[in-house]
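Batch manifest line 113
LIGAND: zinc ion
JOB: complex structure
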Amino acid sequence: MSDDTDRKQQQLKQKLLERLVVLEARTGRITGDLRHESHPVEQDFAEQATQRENEEVLGALDESGRRELDSIRAALARIEAGDYGICRRCRQPISPERLRALPTALECVRCAA
Ligand SMILES: [Zn+2]
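JOB STATUS: finished
ARTIFACT:
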């Protein structure tokens, strides 16, 4: 691996780690809300219904956040393993443009299409 590639990967890794921290903080808070850790269940029926609706929205956020967390963790694991930026299907390098746009990409443009 060239020094330049190594430096770029370190920058990407830093970016991924920052994103990971943000997401973990957010999903942690959302999960806390769902468990009623931050506020007790409302007794009033109407308010309970509103709270349930809010929880459905939070649940969706939680799900997409979790998916993103998984893909970031996978990308970080690939950086550690030294096969980051290599298409998992055809084993060819993924273009730098694609990785800039989608740092968690696991496949090259051709295989993903
Ligand atoms: Zn490929």
